[in-house]
Design a protein that fits this description.
The chain has 284 residues and is of the alpha+beta class. The chain folds into two domains: 88 residues, Phosphorylase Kinase, domain 1 (2-Layer Sandwich); 186 residues, Transferase(Phosphotransferase), domain 1 (Orthogonal Bundle). The chain has seven helices and eleven strands. The strands form three sheets. The chain has a six-stranded antiparallel sheet with strand order 1-2-3-4-6-5, covered by helices on one side. A three-stranded antiparallel sheet has the order 7-9-10, covered by helices on one side. Strand 9 and strand 10 form a beta hairpin. Helix 2 packs antiparallel against helix 4 and helix 2 packs antiparallel against helix 7. The N and C termini lie far apart (55 Å). About 4% of the residues have low confidence.
Length: 284
């Protein structure tokens, strides 16, 4: 099927992505002549209603945030037929960039800079009472100029939410997400640590996996002893600063209580690690 020429009065320029029941387009506003990103969700049957609601929640949360490292939200457009909502379009800031997995930092100092920007965005979210809940390399964009953007608030939720379904990405998902327990700031800290781990060593950490068939009834309580610990990054590569490596491992502690208490605490340690990394680079 070919892409639509227009959506809600916006001219479709290109398809730039897709997700669960959603399509992402670059669109042009003929009135303002501005280019936007537009996420379009079309309801095809009753099962798609949750994707409509997810997009509505994404806008409800995103519109309350205001940080340069978070993709901006412009407005939510509801498509109605006979007074029933048959779809929604979420108009967002357009970012011409590659995801972090495709544009990896060239040095550990550059990696630390990216992590600092991402951490500041998460700290802003937490200050507003929300968690991202799905941070991973593909949800971080890097522009040609090196600017950083955190995207995709589709799984974002208020602090303390207990979700009915297992939501997250294997390899980055915190144990409490797989166990359908309360999600809070330390869930994001785990996702953040798992993302840093992948960037530093190009591998995912050992994590508890949800049922492969998506059947929540098969979910078992898994103890920390059943999940092998992640190898510290500096043991994988001795060039990785030990302070940065230790922070990563602390962030991905199996039990939430063993992780840093807040994103602010993570940022304090990350700034020190970044300074150490810069000093080591200057001496080399």
């Amino acid at each position: 099927m070919s892409d639509p020429r227009t959506i809600a009065g916006f001219t479709v320029l290109a398809r730039i992505g897709e997700g669960a029941r959603s399509e992402l387009f670059a669109v042009h506003d003929p009135k303002s002549r501005q280019v936007w990103a537009l996420k379009h969700v079309q309801k095809k049957d009753d099962k798609d209603q949750r994707f409509i609601e997810q997009c509505e929640r994404e806008y409800a949360i995103g519109s309350k945030l205001d940080h340069p490292t978070l993709r901006g939200m412009q407005k939510l457009i509801k498509h109605r037929k006979m007074f029933k909502v048959e779809g929604v379009s979420l108009l967002m800031e357009f970012v011409d960039a590659d995801s972090l997995d495709k544009r990896l930092p060239r040095t550990y100092a550059d990696a630390a800079r990216v992590f600092l920007h991402v951490g500041e965005a998460l700290e802003h979210m937490h200050g507003k009472g929300f968690v991202h809940a799905d941070l991973k390399p593909t949800n971080i964009l890097i522009t040609d100029a090196g600017d950083v953007k955190v995207i995709d608030l589709g799984q974002a939720c208020p602090v303390g939410t207990v979700k009915k379904r297992i939501q997250g990405t294997p390899g980055y998902m915190a144990p409490e997400q797989a166990r359908r327990e309360s999600i809070d700031e330390r869930t994001d800290i785990f996702n953040f640590g798992a993302t840093m781990y992948w960037v530093l060593v190009r591998d995912v950490i050992p994590t508890m996996m949800p049922p492969s068939q998506g059947d929540d009834s098969l979910l078992q309580k898994v103890d920390a002893d059943e999940v092998p610990p992640a190898q510290p990054p500096h043991e994988v590569n001795p060039r990785i600063p030990e302070s940065l490596s230790k922070l990563v491992i602390d962030c991905v502690a199996f039990e939430a209580a063993d992780r840093p208490a807040s994103m602010a605490a993570v940022m304090d340690r990350l700034r020190l690690a970044a300074a150490e990394t810069a000093a080591q680079r200057a001496q080399s």
